[in-house]
Amino acid sequence: MENGSLYTHIQNNIAVIEFFHPAGNSLPGELLSRLTAAFDELSANNEVNVIILKSEKENTFCAGASFDELSSISTAEEGNKFFLGFANVINAMRKCSKLIIGRVQGKAVGGGVGLAAACDYCFATEQASIKLSEFTIGIGPFVIAPAVARKMGLAALSELTLDASSWQNAYWAKEKGLFAKVFETVNEMDKEVDYLALKLSQYNPEALKEMKKVLWEGTEHWDILLEERAKISGKLVLSETTKSALLKFKK
Asked: Which of 5, 74, 184, 230 has the largest count of CB atoms under 10 Å?
């Protein structure tokens, strides 16, 4: 459980990826690797037409990077490797041949916002407030920034990044384009998630695949871009400012 869990279930041409970590569904390196592998495998699976991405529990969708793992980074190589985990997940979602529906049942921070932004269509509850808090620990949302800006625009990315200590509510996120619909309860959201997934699963899979390509046009350079961004974060996480902030957070 230290590295979290991930389960994939396929039924009626619909795949569900569900992840969990006891620390607010945060993402250590191993869980990031497993997410990447899951998207790659489902992309090549002819029995899958659509994917639902979700996390366990109700309060938090994803707390972003694992603070324990961030605190343990001691070299630029280790830092680069960790942030490449986020780059690999986003690129796997981008290149996945299947449309991805996001189910955001609670708060999303940092990399969690990046996951939501990399989904092709995203539902949320009123509890799904978002925040990019990276500046507060001396780094920045460099790896996820392209995905967030693509979905929400540069102005929203700027507001989230610079006002790093403030939450924005789910309706603000919907207004900016991150969420397609916001619901009062998880049950209401799940009905809509299942309904859309069922509809998509019955459409021509070739049409869905071609539409996925259209939706992500202009991002072909992201393999190189996100790798470069991972290097920036990997270096910054070694700064005294970041080390001190992480230590304070853990205490």
From this structure: 230
